[in-house]
Amino acid sequence: MAAFRLSSVPAELEWRRDPVQWAAEDGGGLSISAGEKTDLFTDPKDGAKTDAAPAALFTPPDALFTLSARVRVEFRSTYDAGVLHVRTTEDAWAKLCFEYSPQGEPMVVSVVNHGVSDDCNSVLVRGDTVYLRVAQSKTATAFHYSRDGARWSFVRYFSLGPLKGLRVGFSSQSPTGKGCRAVFTDIRYRPGFPADLRNGE
């Protein structure tokens, strides 16, 4: 698929994996529909790799930045998710997910991949909508979530290693289901990195 632009994003987005369907939403938003058996995960048990989730990624123009979005997911099956995605190489990437748990509860989940995936469940969220944020410095990445887009809660802080070739963006997945649609609105890209990752700002 061809590269495209959103008014809310400061660079062209390119599809790393093609979605079943996508659309630009009003105000610079984006919807992504993933097909069945779409996921991004490398099992630490045996190294089995799945790399089929559609992702629209861009190269950020700043070394320090935050990217946030209001994420609404049409949950139907276990592990359906809307995702903020960070990637440097094929084996160095991370994703912050609003995901449907095996217990049928929406929750914030993070995965950091260095060859294999480190998967961590975070917090349950009522409803089908949450705000997610990636904060990127020259050496490290932070994940946050928010219920209102104003007060941010800390999820994870980590390094992907050398950041040459860094790309960031949006994804959807449906590992066990027949497909999943995620809608990203109120997308905000801002230069700079939070002074304090744990004070809610």
Notes on the structure:
With 201 residues, this protein is an all-beta fold. It has one domain (14-191): Sandwich (Jelly Rolls). It contains no helices and 16 strands. The chain has a 7-stranded antiparallel sheet, with no helix packed on it. 41% of the residues are buried. The model has no long low-confidence stretch (mean pLDDT 97).
Summarize the structure.
The chain is an all-beta fold.
User: What is the rounded Rg?
Assistant: 15 Å
Q: Note poorly predicted spans.
A: none
CATH class: Mainly Beta
The largest beta-sheet arranges its strands as 1-6-15-8-9-10-11
Beta-strand segment tally? 16
First CA to last CA: what distance? 37 Å
Order of helices and strands: EEEEEEEEEEEEEEEE
Helix content: under 10%
Overall shape: it is: globular
List keywords for this structure.
seven-stranded antiparallel beta sheet, 16 strands, 201 residues, mainly beta, Jelly Rolls, globular
How would the blueprint of this fold be written?
Layout: E1 14-17, E2 21-25, E3 29-34, E4 40-42, E5 49-51, E6 55-58, E7 65-73, E8 81-87, E9 92-100, E10 106-114, E11 116-124, E12 129-136, E13 141-146, E14 153-158, E15 167-173, E16 180-191
